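Standup notes
- DV: blocked on the single-chain target, sequence here:
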Amino acid sequence: MIIVLKENPDKKQLENLEQWLKAMGLEIHYSKGTNTTIMGLIGDTASVDDDLIRALDIVDTVKRVQEPYKNASRKFHPMDSVIDIGGKVKIGGGNFAIMAGPCSVESEDQITQVAQAVKASGAHCLRGGAFKPRTSPYAFQGMRAKGIELLEKAKDLTGLPIVTEIMDISHLDLFENVDVIQVGARNMQNFELLKELGTVRKPILLKRGLSSTLKEFLMSAEYIMAGGNENIILCERGIRTFETALRNTLDLAAIPFLKQRTHLPIIVDPSHACGISDMVLPMSIAATAAGADGLLIEVHNDPAHALCDGPQSLKPEEFDELVGKVEAVRPFAYREGS
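- DV (later): unblocked, structure below
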């Protein structure tokens, strides 16, 4: 349920309303615009009398929210959320960010070379996998804690905020100096992990599960937000369909669909979606045109010898070309409400 207040509501009446709602076991989420203030009620609102609230002098309208996701809903929060990354980068609300780097951290030379290259081309954040969830138990699983140390060295060298994936709650202490914690597709519905990340006060990059609906995607974001962390960046990374020509099917329609329903920024990962480096540039342009708030691009200085996902990784010079073409498209991108 949302309560839209009139301009400059009487403070005493508002205080009485707040106390009454909290006494009913409801949480109140405020969203303040230029001329409108919205009170979003979270909890069991079945017993709340709409007409009684609507009759109050300070209340303009009362609406029931049918969607099960409340904090993530645009009805609760009409304005786009702007996520601050390390005090250096913003994403959402017209702010566009490109996160680039190798699928996995392999050595200090590799990650620092890539970091310097992507920064020179205009990347805003450095991404790199330290913990790698792999289908085969015999595949390279990442450098783990050492990988995070090397990412931190690359951050010190370039100033780029770092993005890397968490796989288990027990690893959380290792992520103290990580600017954006990524939740991979396989963990999108790891609800105990999501609840724990709700207590963390730093941005969470939440990837859509391989077989997850958009409603399930938003409900996973709701798990994190229900814990108090509203710094969520959604990431469309392709879903599993009957098509086998590409690694996954990139659901570009998800971008405008989500823009209509949530205030959270959404970025696109064309590297994992397609699995083929030649597809990354056209899909990056398409995602940008569709209104994405950013991109997550895999870049490797030697893709042919990469320990993980080399076929989908761009070379630094290819990434440089991508950034230029994406910037040329941005002025013409779709904007919700425009």
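- Follow-up: The chain has ten helices and 14 strands.
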